[in-house]
Specification:
Belongs to the binding-protein-dependent transport system permease family. This protein has 303 residues and is an all-alpha fold. Helix content is 67%, strand content 0%.
Length: 303
């Protein structure tokens, strides 16, 4: 949209900062304290993060070293969750697996959120042909199932941390664009955005100073929800053999490796499943609690 021709002296003073632009940290803390779902969810996620960071201090076993003499051992005082078919301590691999899962999912989610937020805000601000072209491209990308798109990208570029992060970013960024664009469209007509345009401010300045601070709630909720989907899809990718390479301690890979011995050492498969389930539940509880407390309608924002 072109800059308005109104003289600078005739432009009304910028509107006072809206509640969404100040005190985000304080409001977030009050929201977490007032929402039981958000409190429980964030507590579960925090436990996973702390356990993953302290993994070397919580166990003395190596997550990758094989020990054939202790293969397929049931739970004991030495191995609380038993060992897998290669003699590796299951609990140790679960603890270290949290590092891989959180590292990949957080990195991919942050990148997808950054790309999607910028594109969504720009599409809402500029509108016109840019919004139309971007919308048609997003429709084409979103028509491909996420797991299929991940398999294609990883199959072409090969497995590895950077490739998986890139694949997850490409797959999830279009979904973030749709949600952020819907939230930004509700902010663009406001007086302070119109005043910024009348002052001749650039699109990036308006995005950073006027639009983004007022959709931070939506972005935070989107981060929590998107992270849970990334964790699930990346674990599914590893389970199918296209994710982490052995002997990387990865939850999806652990389930794939030990599913044939589930009747002998069930904890070798159940332990990573429980870890994955609790992390996903925690992220979903956090997203739902924050969205309800902040009044973020994810269905409406994504429409």
């Amino acid at each position: 949209m072109s800059t308005l021709d109104t003289p600078a002296e005739a432009v009304p003073a910028p509107a006072p900062a809206t509640p969404g632009r100040t005190g985000l940290a304080a409001r977030t803390w009050r929201t977490v304290r007032s929402s039981r779902a958000a409190s429980i969810g964030l507590a579960i996620v925090a436990i996973h993060i702390v356990v993953a960071l302290l993994a070397p201090l919580l166990t003395s076993y190596s997550p990758t070293a094989n020990d054939a003499s202790h293969a397929l051992v049931g739970p004991s005082w030495s191995h609380w969750a038993g060992t897998d078919m290669y003699g590796r301590d299951v609990l140790t691999r679960v603890l270290y697996g949290g590092r891989y899962a959180l590292g990949v999912s957080i990195t991919a989610t942050v990148l997808a959120l950054a790309v999607g937020t910028v594109l969504g805000c720009v599409a809402a601000l500029r509108g016109g042909w840019l919004d139309e072209v971007l919308g048609r491209v997003l429709d084409a990308v979103l028509a491909v199932p996420s797991i299929l798109a991940l398999l294609v990208i990883v199959g072409v570029l090969g497995a590895g941390f950077s490739v998986i992060v890139l694949a997850a970013t490409v797959v999830f960024a279009p979904q973030v664009v749709r949600v952020v664009r819907g939230a930004a469209l509700a902010v663009v007509p406001n007086d302070y955005v119109t005043a910024a345009r009348a002052r001749g401010e650039r699109t990036w300045t308006i995005l950073w100073r006027e639009v983004l601070p007022n959709i931070t709630d939506v972005v935070c909720v989107e981060f929590a929800m998107r992270a849970s989907w990334v964790v699930l899809l990346i674990s599914s990718l590893s389970f199918l053999g296209f994710g982490a390479n052995p002997p990387t301690p990865d939850w999806g890979l652990m389930v794939s490796e030990n599913r044939t011995a589930i009747t002998v050492v069930p904890m070798a498969s159940l332990a990573p499943i429980i870890a994955l389930a609790t992390l996903v539940v925690g992220l979903n509880l956090a997203a739902d609690g924050l969205s309800k407390a902040w009044g973020v309608d994810r269905i409406r924002e994504g429409s």
